[in-house]
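Now for today's protein.

===
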Amino acid sequence: AHSGRGLVYARSVWAGCQRYPGLFLGDQQPTEGGMSRSLNAGLSLSAGGFSWWTADLYGLAGKVTKEMHVRYLQYAAFSPIVRYFSSPSDPSRDPSFYGRENERIFRSVIKTRYRLIPHYYSLGYQAQETGLPIVRPLEIVSPGLPENKNQSDSLPYFFAGDDLLVVCSQKAELPPGRWYDVRSGKTREGGSAISWNKGRIPVLLRTGSILATGRSALTTEKMKNTAVILCVPGGSSHYELYDDAGEGSDHEKGSFLLTRIEFSSMNDSILIRKLDIADSQEDNRSYIFYIPGIDSAPGSEGDIPNGGKWYFHRRNRVLKIVPKTKGEKNWEIQLSGIHLTSDFR
């Protein structure tokens, strides 16, 4: 018997079809206008309850320019479903068509998407349970803001969940709040300008948030047993990480893992707590936590009471915590003598 999960992949749908993923956005052109119209359509679908949609990466027809090889990635690689569309008769869609630099950028962005699979999978579960879409316009994340001008033909950004911000315009003004740039390690204030540079697609996290990722890999099997958790200081936060067997229908009978990760930074200490909400499967994952914005720690490394270790990377101001908690259901880690930089206090 086949153990895979069926997927209805449609081009034209009607009201009620949001129950049957996924949906692709018709015929698109690999141009700035085509990309903007595609993103507008996708976010409109999100607002209508369609969580699983995708653009054709590089569109259906028309030669892809060297710049659009990178520009289209900036959006399509972070849509709910990534569909790499190519025609044998048009080599311009090949990642290596414009040389090794374009191929390197393509590989780097796709690796980032693979690392985000635990996050998107968890958002998929959330969409099933609550109806909240995976990829969201600002109007869903922060309704009623006077700054909501995210309705033009050139959308500057979108969210994957409530806290992960993907900038998809060459120039954009960040939404309200404080944002941590996961590539540069810097914080940026809402309202400030951010620009796109080739190969450096801006991906930001709201301060005081948590993001679950996997190891850097190009296959899901190689990242299956490790949860890499980024905890950005700025208050108390929590995150629900979902996982299941990835095939079959046992998850419909309750066979899945739902893990709540809590993080808080207070005075001179940090607290991480793991709670199993649903644990009909054994949690065999190893956990690695990264906490940026650390000004000082009591040394360069140390022990955790449960036998794990912590490491302070002074140069990039990041604390790495590797607990030995594999198989344990509920646990917490508290470290003292940890001082944050002024950006995260």
Observations:
- Helices lie at 32-47, 66-76, 100-115, 117-130, 138-141.
